[in-house]
Amino acid sequence: MGGHPWWDNKAPKTPAILRAHARRRAMERYNVRLSKHHLRAIVQAIRTGKAEKLYKQSNNRSVWRVVLHDVVLYPIFDKKRRTVVTFLDEEMLAADGISVDKVAEPCENESSGTNVKGGNSGTIN
User: Which 3 state secondary structure label does DSSP give 65?
Assistant: First the structure.
């Protein structure tokens, strides 16, 4: 008595697979090439409350707002896997009824090797 045979045989998504997907989507949707250090800084800003949470998608995933080198990014963070799984663009958020007019406030974090300045929404340089 199993579930669907295709789903049962499907390999679980690992954090590395999800990060690679997120990096591809950042390039596709924002024309921004993210390094592993950039992704780590984004995750740290989210986990320390220095990014702005827009809304919760599910029990494990939520949409955030972060500014990286003057580009506003909207990552989806998976708290179970502790990683960014993809990025949404403003059109996708607008389709969900989310306003994206707010300006980000800067915050600082030396440990990530990048410049993250403080507040409820974060700027990462």
Answer: strand
